[in-house]
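MODEL INPUT / OUTPUT PAIR
PAIR INDEX: 1
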Amino acid sequence: MPLSLLAALALTAAPATSPHPYNVQDQITLRRLSDPRVSPDGQRIAFVLRSTDLEANRGRNDLWLVNLDGSGARQLTSHPDSDNQPVWAPDGRSLFFLSSRGGSSQVWRLPIDGGEPQQVTKLPLDVNAFTVSQDGTRLAVALEVFPDCATLECTTQRREAKAKSKSSGRIYDKLFVRHWDTWADGRRSHLFVLPVAGGTPVDVTKGMDADAPGKPFGGADEFTFTPDGKGVVFTARDVGRQEAWSTDLDLFLASADGQGQPRKLTTSNRATDTAPVFSPDGKTLAYLAMERPGYEADRLRVILRSWPDGKERVLTEKWDRSAEGLTWSADGKTLFTTAYNELQHPAFAIDVASGAVRPLLQEGYAADVQPAAGGRIVYAFDTLKSPTDLYSSNVDGSDARQLTRVNQEALASIRFGDSEAFTFSGANGDKVFGYVMKPVDFDPKKKYPVAFLIHGGPQGSYSNHFHYRWNPQAFAGHGYAVVSVDFHGSTGYGQAFTDAIQDDWGGKPLEDLQKGLAAATARYPFLHAERVCALGASYGGYMINWIAGNWPDRFKCLVNHDGILDERMGYFDTEELWFPEWEHRGTPWDNPSAYSKHNPIDHVGKWKTPMLVIEGGQDFRVVETQALGTFNALQRRGIPSKFLYFPDENHWVVKPANSVLWHETVLGWLDQWTKQGAAAPAAKSTP
């Protein structure tokens, strides 16, 4: 990394104020708003604001507050350690939150109208997520414990003893051995209930060899108190030794006093059930459910369950979109949600009586939709040209008003690239969507080199969303036009379009990419069709390896981040086995042809395009040997190549300094091969 850039980053905590195209320094230092929570009276919104601590090489989270009309924005916490996950007390006079101050993640409480934060929990283990009962007297907290331990101290003592042991060996007799970026050590995430006023926590998931909330990404949205506070409804995958190849998450009901065993509520569904939330009157439990076991990208339907008698109905069977998160309106007549929809991620309102769905926002990326006072809703919102801020609108989406401007000063000096959507006829003659982004300071008389971005998932989308990884503005600000295609398998176009990629990883998606790039370069004369570099991560990285052998003469260069080289070995060295088993219709020994028909390793002999390979040492989803094998093949064949390795990153690159190095290396690689006069040499023959 250039020393000048390091020095610049070390001296500033905000983007440069002089006018400039969007760059990596902006991406690192823009403040990030998340986790908005509307007060019980609907008049105020608490939220988390992340700033970048460059010296510590990490993000730092603080709590903020703003009024519903956008006035009175103020910072509530400023401790050097992170404060996050705000939860309003039922009376609206204080906020509970998690803080790592003091060296341990615990629940704290802050009076809104004045006073210092007070520590609520003083447990010997970190609190990873929590919620508060409706009467404000109890907490449910998620702690990592050994399931056979009767006390929290037992878990602490066992970990201390292991740390003192001279032996580093671990013995496993079932999966998971490791998950996402963490080796299993026998602990499980269990839910404990304790009084807010203090007392002994009770394990309400006692004896379960399962995680609640789930790993690696589960949070407080996976558990809730019952309306009377006597129980806790939670999500868990309690399937014994099948855990690594099962998507059977269920809802359970546990007694808040820890008596008896949790009772499974969703006994008839062998697929995912999650995200429970009770109606304001406590008479209905809404949750999200898939219907096909083993498939993590099935459509999430909204289910309503009468409480407590258990009668259920599917509310959104006719809506061909996958709901993300649920919030009830104050009168219980509407459920708010969000979903991908044709390059957008708008908010939707679902009528509880009829199941009718109406969009509240047509464009942009909405999240965390919640009811507020005066018949309004509050939501987080961003687009490709604007990072997240809070907005409010009427419940029909009209009269939208921006409530926060957390990056106002920084954005005033940043110039962004403009983008527009396009469509074309893809595989099977289906309508396929894509984006083209113009370079910053676009000149229609010029032709620009192209960054052709291929998204991961594969059930993902390049939507109208301001992201802090693979942000197309980082390329547009560096002088590149950007093209992205939502190929078959992408979300937001109906479940059949998403399903179409099963057992066809290198088929319809590649055809869509080929036709999409051709359509874009034909439609937009400023795209330099001969100076294109293709880039992708995860499934996109797989596709880069597949392109290298099956579209070998098209690109000046390739960038492969966390991409599979060998589909057969990719099954054996990953952790969530349900994913390849669904995508390839079985295991490699039961259906070997599915793992061979679109396997990049079998086409290495046709590789010729220069490739940058990137990998994280803590990536247990697509392991580092896949990247090393890719780089070995490139080097052995004499193909110009580089290997960028992050020993401390997982499937993503998140540390600020590492993100800077990633962007510097990737953009430098594109410059090397796509700038005027550069040309990719032919591959050398292998001796």
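PAIR INDEX: 2
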Amino acid sequence: MKLFPSDIEIAQKSKISSIKDIALKLHIDEEDLELYGKYKAKLPLYLQQQEPKGKLILVSAMSPTKYGEGKTTMTIGLTDGLNSIGKKAIAVLREPSLGPVFGLKGGAAGGGYSQVLPMEDINLHFTGDFSAIEKANNLLSAIIDNELQSKENTLNLDPKSIAWKRVMDMNDRSLRQIIVGIGGKGNGVMREDGFNITPASEIMAILCLSKDIEDLKHRLGSIFIGKTMEGQPVFARELNVVGAMAALLKDAIKPNLVQTIEGNAAILHGGPFASIAQGTNSVIATKMGLSLGDYVVTEAGFGADLGAEKFFHIKCEQSGLKPDAVVIVATIKAIKHHAGLAANEFQYENISAIATGFCNLEKHIENIQKFGINPVVCINAFPTDTVAEYDTLIGLCAQKGVKAVVCNSFAEGGKGATSIAQAVITEIESETAHYQPLYQAEDAIEYKIIKIAKEIYGASAVAFSSKATTQLKMINEIGFSHFSVCMAKTPASFSDNEKLIGRPTDFTITVREFEIASGAGFVIPLLGEVMRMPGLPSVPNATRIDVDNEGKITGLS
């Protein structure tokens, strides 16, 4: 039996066009491009209109499994499918983080014949945006420690109150909690510190939510770093470092233009994780896509309980964006997983398991409907699926008033996604999407957390640790109660316990502690045991990656 080629084999054999030709399809002049070689370019901020006219399509998913649901693959496939039926569509995606690339999940450039190119570059360094974000973040850390070391210490900073962490774009659990300043006075003030992964940096969040350079600088200045010895809040602007941080980000704030395998435009920009950050690409990139195309297909990370919820309550509320359609990606494998089947049982037809495992997808459908939008379900096709299983799942979705369509873009590219593309167009043209948030800015932080936990997750109660209770009091005293909440929890379950699959009920969500992202305009409740610096698996994906003497890379996925 002939094996299906790997993602990197498909990418390396695909014809790739000059990025100048891709830009011309969007009526972008070569003079407007900042070229990064032949196949990548940065786009100037003035290409985004104040009120773009395109239609916005959000792609989300049911609760993910380790087998992969293919949300990015379906996003790219849907973009190619829309172009195949004569629509001018642009994919607007996040950039991959090196943490998953070298860790467990692999790359984030799509899969099969629904990928963005150049695949290797996109997964490895790309145009340096992550590096710039990392440097700006760690510059602030260095300035903070320098202020503590200074004899003047004019701000009278309390070392024990420092809330700002360093970041690195790699999974490294040993850096979660560290002590800096060891070795005597000359090495700084000894204190506890820690690292988050770069996608969880507040700088990443700020970059993705800023409107322009001026807004970027305002947000950078509003970063809460700690308190004075007298208990007064201290912000980054008081360290006179905002200009230097912004200078490091002057190119990173510009979106990146690449292409799909089928030569359609794709804009990649920003890369926050949805489990521990807001999980969506930049506002600038989305609005630029809506200015340059008639349809923008974008995605929000992990399941709809994380990425889509944050897309609505953080990105939409801060930018004024409103989705015209939402797509939820599902797989027969994931449905069977949430029915409690083991992986070795997935290959066998099991209609009763589809009925049982549907509960997870059903809850995601209901959640999107709570925001005033009726989603379309995209069933990502796998060779082991059967027609009877598809029919069962399509029928169950129909009972919820939702259209479900099988998509085979992984194997067939755009032509395998024309049916889902047409279904999405039909949904948009029905004009039934009326987005509305589940909470308002003036609601208390505690109310917002409980609202999401009960309405979106299905929790029966929320418990706050003593540390979280103390931090919540401080958040309110400083004046951050109007912020959104960016919940950090396991993506594997609606609960904060990854073992509770399907649609759990009668469970309690535990808020362990908070992190504050005042420049980004949200607070981060850490639920259960979630960490904002992931660790590597026992066998990292890095062990499979190599490069030969000609520079050809293998092992990326």
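PAIR 2 NOTE: The chain has three domains: 7-127+252-429, 129-248, 445-527.
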